[in-house]
Task: structure prediction
Amino acid sequence: MTAVDETGGETLRAAERTAVETIRHGLRLSPEFRRGLAGTLALAVLATIGKIIVPVAVQQVIDRGLRGGTPDVPFIRNAVLLCALAVLLTALCGYLMNVRLYRSTESGLATLRGKGFRHVHDLSVLTQNTERRGALVSRVTGDVDQISAFMQWGGLTVIIALGQLVVATVLMAVYSWQLTLLVWVCFLPVMFALPRFQRMVSRAYTKVRERAGDVLAAVSESVVGSAVIRAYGSEDRTAERIDRAVNGQRRAQTRAQMIIGFTFPTTELVAAVAIAAVIILGVHLGVAGSITQGRLIAFLFLITLFISPLQTATEVLNEAQNAIAGWRRVLGVLDTPADVADPADGVTLPRGPISVAFERVGFAYPGGPPVLHDVSVELTPGTRMAVVGETGSGKTTFAKLLTRLMDPTSGRILVDGVDLREVRFSSLRERIVMVPQDGFLFDASLADNIRFGRPSASDEEIRLALTELGLADWLEGLPAGLGTPVGQRGESLSAGERQLVALARAYLADPDLLLLDEATSAVDPATEVRLARALDGVTRGRTAVSIAHRLSTAEAADEVLVFQHGRIVQRGPHAELVEQDGVYADLHASWASAIGS
Amino acid sequence: MTAESTESEESRASARSVMLQGLRVIWVAVRAEPGVFTGAVLASALYGAMTVASSWALGWATDHAVLPAFGGDGGDGGDGGGAATGALLLAALFIVGVAVFKAAGVMGRRILAGIMQYRMQARSRREVTRQYLRLPLSWHHRHPTGQLLSNANSDVEAAWGPLAPLPMAVGVIVMLVTAAVAIVLVDPVLALVGFLIFPAVALLNLVYQRRLSPLAMRAQQLRAEVSEVAHESFDGALVVKTLGREDAETTRFQARADELRDANIAVGRVRGLFDPLLEALPTLGVLAVLLVGAARLKAGSVATGDLVQVAYLFTLLAWPIRALGWVLAELPRSVVGWSRVREVLDATGSMTYGAAALDGDGPARVTAENVRYGYDPASPVLKGVSFRIEPGRTTAVVGQTGSGKSTLTQLLARLIDPDHGAMRIDGTDLREVARGGVSGAVALVPQQTFLFDDTVRGNITLGLDVPDEKIWAALRLAQAEGFVSALPSGLDTRVGERGATLSGGQRQRLALARALVREPRLLILDDATSSVDPQVEKRILHGLREESAESTVVVVAYRMATIALADEVAYLEHGTVADHGPHDELLARCEGYRALVTAYQREEAERSALDEAVAEAVDEAVDTDEEVVA
Result:
């Protein structure tokens, strides 16, 4: 599930930062990473220096301890004990460094997750909807995990590997500059070839990720579409699709592994060539008297210090690239402006019935034609307004603007005389609540879902709310009452029941303006009529707007707004509108024939 | 449900040794891919043996090429530089030759291990998804989508994670054994050092793994939970936004993220301690070799080259020996991943199929015999539903919210099987129909539309070979012809993931066309036109009425217009068919039905009565006023 969704990230600001900019920006956002970094680096340097203990010990023992044919045992013993102490100290440094590193990076990443998560919720519904859900989830899970993996393994490996090369080179140069040059000449081609290898590997892994995305999509269709697949007997077809995706992924993975498999052992060969060359040249130098045998042998040990950094380099570089790409994506989310933002010094509206005024409001989806033109309308406090019109006439856009899920592209909306954009979110969400058509429920009990509207509500208050909405009978009929688990997305309940819960949830929130967007479309007529009556009672003294697909709602409202092609074409009480020739009369006629009256 | 199952997983995992279970998982893979595994292990063994050989080569070079040149005390020759040239070249060739074989071993090991790991992953993914397709819908209802997705993805990945370093670990064991033999051959006393160090490394690895596994498992679990919270919360983003609960949701998420942080730090503590120790041990070994070796050298039991060889060997071992640790570290994840995968693979309750065919011609006869069904067996939704629908008739299923209408449609299409009783078409129990038989005769348009990420054509035919004219005819009937022909590539336009590029009403009409193009013998519409405008819906229903003489139709409906188009009505109440018959008769004799379907009309009537009363009252008042005035 990790890191396969990057294709979906296009609409978020795909900040084309360079790696350095990404890291700098990322570190600014997560100051925890830098906490105690100096100490950690110092420990890393010490741990790296520990790597030369063995070559030095070998050199000392051979050149000084074994000089003159008889081993100088006391010297060797002292040297070995000293080195052993150094080894233990090195291990201690390694331990302290690791612990510090884990603590600071994990703290930073936990904060980054939280910030990312919060920001996704702050993004407007427009951005949320254009993004693939899975991609957004990846931003706070897989992408962050990738950074975490790199920081704790790769990042450290890079530091230690570079340190290892430096320390080894310095010590080698002390022993013999000619041999040092020789070793570098042997390894330089590898170092030059590394970026090429890495690009090949990276391309191969990009392919792997794309294929993994195909697999995820194919698998998710088989899960989410399980009912349709069964109903149409297309199991075999779906299975074939999955097989294709799975095989594609396997082939891409194998290819990537082949590339690594062929390039990885090159360093072994180069090291062997280097050792052979060092022995040949070293012996000649030794004969000339410019190097001791201990130093020459220590050289052979030092060459092994060259191998592991180069061997892991391709993988580390690859992981680094992934981590930076992941980081870039996470930062991309954080950089995407919350275009519908909580104002800095927002106004808190006093409680009480709410008045609304749309002043020449227009709206167009980004890159799309206008869907709302020049809408001006006033709702006096306590009005119950019905909004009707055909699909696509602008009703839902009207609702989303009124609840500030989106901001108008022109004109403005006033609540109690204040521009909606200047109202503090906490105040706005408390006073204006919308019940969307698809009442999403969380995987928890019925009570917990209703309580989502007002976290402090007791079970009694929830029960009372349901009773006031005329839903006491329905509650009675549920096996475990308020404790009934609703399942994932509420799928243990029927579509109509989910709408009942969503309605109760909004009602419990006790808003001053309640906006229903076809909120009872899946409820049976008797229940709907009962609900409508109950709502009639409980919304008395509040402003209520309902987008209705059943015109019975319109008949009960104080006033009806009729939308057509993004404009308000009629406005007035039902009794008046139904008498006039126009859109409303047509809608009503077709509705009346549908219900058979 | 998730929390419970993971708890049981954890306790099960800790009850038996994780290592044993991990080996069992590995055994599954070995049995599945014996050839590749053997190849990888052989390559790895070659690598292990050549690693030891390379140290031997170095020791040989020291004794035969280096020390003689320095006029040293070691080897056999003591006659200065020139004479050693032959030995020197030989040593160089020897070193490079060993490296070639070693590189070949590494290459073989890496590639073959990869092939094995990816084959196993692909195989498990195929098996898991086959099982998803095989298991009944009721099983799907019980399992969260997120869980099923991670079963097929991250769990499979975790399960076969240890396969990558496994051959290397086996190679390391070969390496250790060869190394032990090589050292014994050099000097038994020096070998003692090895025999102290190697078991110590093994023991340390074991302790490491034991300390790490519960922590790593917990971290893995929390990673899944963090993802689940994010998934759910983003899915419900609109609700979170409209109720202003972003802060509370962030708190909920942050709590999980912080737990994950703490778990990862706990893992880091253990890793941070053991990794340096595992590296330090072989280094200490080298030092011990030097110390002991010096004494042995003094005693004349070994040569300097031997000392160099053994010390070099320990240096070479320091890194690969940790591969053992990697396998051990991957094991707990693997065990958890595999147990979650197994849970899917072991799930039973796949639908069984008989051999009967539904090959009758023309519309189907449908019978329900005392059908019971419950998602929770204690409180069944349908408590004994019986009815009979004659061929070619259109029946409206009417009932309260939550009365089991959708459940009934799923039983009719055999997406689920009744707990008791039977659903029959033409007298044949659906459970006895051969695989593919029911879906060949019955088409269900569910309440929630699902489109595949495919073209319009692909979504309608679902792989069936249908000529374009028939597709267009179905689209026409579903009132979708207009918008489809306006799409940039017509039938070949891709609709995006879940049909994201289309509106709700358009998606519903495509789903309807998908059913119609099959000319099913039984067509079931579960509130399938809810997102369509009333006028369009009316045209669809009239079209169906005219064209559907070849089908028996079952339609879940609330609207009077839809009901009026039906020949008869089945009214569901309290889990049974309370009444069944023509709409007019039910209206006359069934009180519950009347209350339900005439709710809007009565409401309207009451309201106009009220309006009239008010109007009269006003009129009277006006009259009175006028009288008074008069």
